Amino acid sequence: MELTATVTELRYALDTFFFLISGALVMWMAAGFAMLEAGLVRSKNTTEILTKNIVLYAIACTMFLLVGYNIMYVDNSGGGYLPSFGSLIGTQGEGADHSLESDFFFQVVFVATAMSVVSGAVAERMKLWAFLAFTVVLTGFIYPMEGYWTWGGGFLSEAGFSDFAGSGIVHMAGAAAALSGVILLGARSGKYGKNGSVHPIPGSNMPLATLGTFILWFGWFGFNGGSQLMVSDFENATAVGQIFLNTNAAAAAGAIAALLVCKTTWGKADLTMILNGALAGLVAITADPLSPSPLAAVSVGAVAGAIVVFSIVGFDKIKIDDPVGAISVHGVCGFFGLMVVPLSNADATFGAQLLGAAVIFGWVFGASMVVWAVLKATMGIRVTKEEEMEGMDVHDCGIGAYPEFMTVKQ
């Protein structure tokens, strides 16, 4: 009896530690998003995008603690539509595999990831305080609602929708919120010509963008691996190894596919597209990084890496200005990831996947559009042309990221 209790305690401790380390890896993705976005915006907007990233993480952690986790997981009916709308994280249930606090920590960093998708897409022309106000609503209410419907045991879960680590629940949701904001916000000044021409606006720091991508790639092992939830027995430990392998394989294939598409299309190795290709592979495999064989994971990543290139170009053609390609990476490839799950997972169906994708996108896009519209009508969401020309760093933060390169007025 004593030996059994000791083994149970050791497994509890190991799985709790696994959750915490996985959550710490995902938290480090916040740095990845910050570096990626800082590299892909112009130098005059760098401090502001970094401010957005650290503050959105802080707001996400606070709002999910106060109300979001409770909405998503606590005292909800199975297969339901409306959550309990309580506060804080509830109490530890008997027989748990890991601590409640470790579960909260692992979940909260996913919320911050969803919001990070938005920051890059609306960069260089959105008011800082409007963005932060939206962050409060998305992380506290919009995301937890669809989180309850899926991971929280709501009606989409009951319908058989499958999304292992969040291709749709996290990434496509963030892209849906971003798309609604971009539509109301409009493009950056000078991005599109009257005759349909597209004027590229290069980022300021490719080393930072590359570093950010590597950090995201690294953090994704916690994102997908931790979603197995356990590592304390043979079956789960083996599964985590498979998840790591498939996650890495999909990212690598995505980068290679994007490189080849760029070379065959334009004759150049476009670094920004290669970076987004790797991220596209990661997003796509996230819906199910366990079921596919390694070769299947390579295929999923490669297709996503090719798709993202054409998607970024396509959004530019319809004048949807996304400075970092977030809507394509997380939205289009997130949807692709959801829809290929049934090819390797016999428990998933295309109908359930399509239903889940439609509900998640429809809810997040619609609710976000309402929130953005209210913000636009009240405090406004776009800076003036003069402020956009001068740069968000000076206007919002009062300090430049690279002051030695700034012109000082005497």
UniProtKB/TrEMBL annotation:
<keyword id="KW-1133">Transmembrane helix</keyword>
<feature type="domain" description="Ammonium transporter AmtB-like">
    <location>
        <begin position="18"/>
        <end position="401"/>
    </location>
</feature>
<keyword id="KW-0924">Ammonia transport</keyword>
<feature type="transmembrane region" description="Helical">
    <location>
        <begin position="293"/>
        <end position="315"/>
    </location>
</feature>
<dbReference type="GO" id="GO:0016020">
    <property type="term" value="C:membrane"/>
</dbReference>
<keyword id="KW-0472">Membrane</keyword>
<dbReference type="GO" id="GO:0097272">
    <property type="term" value="P:ammonium homeostasis"/>
</dbReference>
<dbReference type="InterPro" id="IPR018047">
    <property type="entry name" value="Ammonium_transpt_CS"/>
</dbReference>
<dbReference type="InterPro" id="IPR029020">
    <property type="entry name" value="Ammonium/urea_transptr"/>
</dbReference>
<protein>
    <submittedName>
        <fullName>Ammonium transporter</fullName>
    </submittedName>
</protein>
<feature type="transmembrane region" description="Helical">
    <location>
        <begin position="269"/>
        <end position="287"/>
    </location>
</feature>
<dbReference type="InterPro" id="IPR024041">
    <property type="entry name" value="NH4_transpt_AmtB-like_dom"/>
</dbReference>
<dbReference type="InterPro" id="IPR019879">
    <property type="entry name" value="Ammonium_transptr_marine"/>
</dbReference>
<feature type="transmembrane region" description="Helical">
    <location>
        <begin position="12"/>
        <end position="33"/>
    </location>
</feature>
<feature type="transmembrane region" description="Helical">
    <location>
        <begin position="350"/>
        <end position="375"/>
    </location>
</feature>
<comment type="similarity">
    <text>Belongs to the ammonia transporter channel (TC 1.A.11.2) family.</text>
</comment>
<feature type="transmembrane region" description="Helical">
    <location>
        <begin position="165"/>
        <end position="185"/>
    </location>
</feature>
<feature type="transmembrane region" description="Helical">
    <location>
        <begin position="104"/>
        <end position="123"/>
    </location>
</feature>
<keyword id="KW-0812">Transmembrane</keyword>
<feature type="transmembrane region" description="Helical">
    <location>
        <begin position="54"/>
        <end position="74"/>
    </location>
</feature>
<feature type="transmembrane region" description="Helical">
    <location>
        <begin position="327"/>
        <end position="344"/>
    </location>
</feature>
<dbReference type="Pfam" id="PF00909">
    <property type="entry name" value="Ammonium_transp"/>
</dbReference>
<feature type="transmembrane region" description="Helical">
    <location>
        <begin position="206"/>
        <end position="223"/>
    </location>
</feature>
<keyword id="KW-0813">Transport</keyword>
<feature type="transmembrane region" description="Helical">
    <location>
        <begin position="243"/>
        <end position="262"/>
    </location>
</feature>
<dbReference type="GO" id="GO:0008519">
    <property type="term" value="F:ammonium channel activity"/>
</dbReference>
<feature type="transmembrane region" description="Helical">
    <location>
        <begin position="128"/>
        <end position="145"/>
    </location>
</feature>
